[in-house]
Amino acid sequence: MLAVSNLQAAYGASRVLFDINLDIAEGECVTLLGRNGMGKTTTIRCIMGLLNPRGGDIAFCGETIAGRTPERIARLGAGLVPEGRMVFPTLTVRENLVATASNRLKRDNPWTEQRVCQLFPRLGERRNQWANTLSGGEQQMLAIGRALMTNPRLLILDEATEGLAPVIRAEIWRCLEELRREGQSILIVDKNINVLRRLADRHVVIEKGATVWRGSTPELDRDWDKVHGWLGV
Fold first, then answer.
1. CB 39 within 8 A of CB 16
2. What is the three-state SS of 53-112?
3. What is the pTM of this model?
4. How far apart are CA 28 and CA 80, in angstroms?
5. Are 152 and 78 in contact (CB under 8 A)?
6. Tens of pLDDT, residues 53-69
7. Which of 36, 73, 165, 211 is the most exposed place for a label (fewest CB within 10 A)?
8. What is the pLDDT of residues 68-115, one digit of tens each?
9. CA nearest to 213, candidates 34, 18, 25, 35
10. Hey, what domains does the chain have and what are their CATH numbers?
């Protein structure tokens, strides 16, 4: 579904990505791991067309998308839950959801406002509430629901549970596990490695803008001493 090969990127004269390689098959959940400042968000920005790569290639569903505009990539089926949530603050929960609603892939059971509110009952209770009056956890649920309303082939989450209370984090993980069981393809950035070990099929570790390790959860457990050196502070 997604293949990132030898990806390179920069902000002006500052090189950030040097050699990123990752791939995701249909129905897989893959994590992108690394310490802060190693290039995880920049990799996602390149995938989503928010930053033009300086080299390498990105293929999504058989099409080269490196350098394409964000709206064209979204229409192919990439849905982003950005770091910081970035919901529309002066729209209600319902308006945030319907603003992005589409079913370009003609799915038989598409995501709808009702279905999102079944996944996140708190959103149903606050359907007519402005987004900027929600708690941080509720805004994250709304950001996930908004991305699901595009009925994406691939759901990308950048810092899925950062800064959330433990009870809210648990609810987010429960919903992501439900999406996994339904076969949703997911690329996720988060620091909760214990949950990610249970949730994901494979893991990609990056260090200073380059992929340094890739493997399955059993391989991660086997190589944990080495991998922990790239993830620890």
1. yes
2. CCEEEEEECCEECCCCCHHHHHHHCEEEECCCCCCCCCCEHHHHHHHCCCCCCCCCCCCC
3. 0.93
4. 16
5. yes
6. 999 999 999 899 998 99
7. 36
8. 999 999 999 999 999 888 899 999 999 999 998 988 888 888 999 999
9. 34
10. 1-77+196-233 (3.40.50.300)
Q: Are 204 and 32 in contact (CB under 8 A)?
A: yes
Q: What whole-number distance in Å separates Cα of residue 84 and Cα of residue 94?
A: 20
Is 209 in contact with 43 (CB distance < 8 Å)? no
pLDDT at 50 exceeding the cut of 80: yes
For 65, counting Cβ atoms within 10 Å of its Cβ (0-12 exposed, 13-18 middle, 19+ buried), the class is buried
Q: Is the Cβ–Cβ distance between 203 and 36 less than 8 Å?
A: no
pLDDT at 164 over 90: no
Q: The dihedral of CA 150, 152, 155, 158: what is its sign? A: negative
Could you give the CA distance from residue 78 to residue 84 in angstroms, rounded to a whole number? 18
